[in-house]
Q: What sequence folds into this?
């Protein structure tokens, strides 16, 4: 028996936007069958053929960017301009893999005792994506473009509060002319994911989401001896040293913390500022936070929309309160918030002790956590004192400090004098409890292929 209807609620005003009927087990079984049957032919198509369809998908994304962005904003609350930029970034990743997949997956010659030896790349089959609500399009397309170009087929289990976006994504691939079964959306709840992973026809799973979800998916995939790729939470460090361009560091810091309403795994969340520039940074940081406008995400000039759900907002409030009780102080932006919706006034939590949520937990919303440090060793030590290891930032003009940060920060990426961002041309992923494996660039398209060794005597 199917689950009850799932309601999509606008986080800005608590109104029901749309209701969805979850797929039945029979519908899910049909989708898996279609994906598997499609794979048998799709895997034999040329890179040129796949690229042609992927370029059409990019065109469709751009042509419908306003509609897709509006649906995204209504479902999860991000400012409309950021939603539109997200759709256009998805067109970029489609074009990137259309142009580069054949190069990334070209045979790799190997020296051997035979007359010829090389690595040959072959697709695996049906790959499941379990994706989150915070970047409803980007998270999916950075999965879909490489796996389809590699010759795999895809199934999407999206977060239940962005089912309209999930269906819009399926629409893109259908309208682009991808064959039936190449990419399908499953309207199912989390409790049904395990059975999909266990299906023999499903050959791998990619998850972006929480640590608990990642652990559950990895355990199921591991028991079935199937590859998994996890991109999980983060509590990225942002280090500012005395030689930094302070104005650039401040502007970047605010954007890195508040983009997407602060609901980003790679958002800068913990700021470690050298004592020599701490007072100036703190003053500039507070002034910029005071200028952040919280309001209707569809209006120009809005910096922060509502948080995606009431539970996320409530958890964030509780984390700030616990950090204050532990000894931190708080600077609030000072916005008057609407009575209905999942609103949160951006704030800076200052000097929270170890053991408090500010120091130890991921805070998924517009809360910056600020500390004064005496030198780079202390900054790196405190940055690494985290269960997470996704991204990291250092602002400095000192080459020695840059090299030390690159060598010693425990993270999947270190950005120097810039905020952490994902780019189709660069591998993306984390270490520790931020996950394993890499998306994007060559790594992303090789994540779900058989790197077959070929030896000819």
A:
């Amino acid at each position: 028996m199917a689950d009850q209807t799932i309601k999509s609620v606008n986080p800005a005003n608590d109104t029901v936007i749309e209701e969805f009927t979850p797929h039945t087990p029979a519908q899910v079984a049909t989708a898996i069958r279609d994906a598997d049957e499609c794979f048998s032919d799709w895997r034999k198509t040329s890179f040129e053929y796949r690229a042609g369809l992927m370029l059409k998908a990019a065109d469709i994304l751009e042509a419908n960017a306003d509609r897709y962005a509006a649906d995204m904003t209504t479902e999860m609350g991000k400012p409309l301009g950021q939603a539109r930029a997200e759709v256009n970034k998805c067109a970029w990743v489609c074009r990137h893999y259309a142009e580069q997949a054949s190069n990334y997956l070209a045979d790799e010659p190997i020296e051997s005792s035979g007359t010829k030896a090389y690595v040959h790349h072959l697709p695996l089959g049906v790959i499941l994506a379990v994706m989150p609500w915070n970047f409803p399009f980007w998270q999916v397309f950075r999965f879909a473009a490489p796996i389809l170009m590699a010759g795999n087929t895809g199934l999407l289990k999206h977060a239940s509060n962005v089912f309209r976006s999930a269906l819009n994504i399926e629409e893109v691939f259908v309208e682009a002319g991808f064959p039936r079964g190449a990419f399908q959306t499953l309207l199912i709840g989390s409790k049904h994911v395990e059975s999909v992973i266990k299906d023999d026809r499903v050959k791998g799973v990619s998850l972006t989401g929480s640590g608990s979800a990642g652990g559950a998916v990895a355990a199921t995939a591991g028991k079935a001896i199937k590859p998994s790729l996890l991109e999980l939470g983060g509590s990225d460090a942002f280090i500012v040293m005395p030689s930094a361009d302070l104005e650039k560091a401040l502007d970047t810091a605010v954007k890195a913390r508040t983009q997407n309403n602060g609901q980003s795994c790679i958002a800068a969340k913990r700021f470690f500022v050298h004592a020599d520039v701490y007072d100036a940074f703190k003053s500039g940081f507070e002034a910029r936070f005071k200028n952040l406008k919280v309001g209707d995400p569809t209006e120009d000039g809005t910096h922060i929309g509502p948080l995606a759900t009431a539970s996320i907002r409530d958890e964030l409030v509780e984390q700030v309160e616990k950090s204050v009780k532990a000894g931190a102080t708080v600077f609030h932006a000072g916005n008057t918030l609407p009575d209905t919706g999942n609103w949160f006034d951006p704030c800076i939590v200052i000097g929270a002790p170890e053991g408090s949520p500010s120091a130890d937990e991921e805070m998924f919303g517009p809360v910056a956590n600020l500390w004064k440090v005496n030198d780079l060793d202390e900054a790196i030590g405190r940055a690494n004192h985290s269960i997470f290891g996704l991204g990291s930032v250092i602002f400095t003009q000192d080459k020695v400090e840059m090299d030390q940060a690159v060598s010693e920060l425990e993270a999947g990426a270190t950005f120097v004098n810039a905020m952490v961002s994902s780019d189709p041309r660069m591998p993306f992923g984390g270490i520790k409890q931020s996950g394993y494996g890499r998306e994007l660039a060559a790594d992303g398209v090789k994540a779900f292929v058989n790197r077959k060794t070929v030896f000819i005597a």
Observations:
- The longest strand covers residues 116-123.
- The two ends are 57 Å apart (CA to CA).
- The chain has a mean pLDDT of 97.
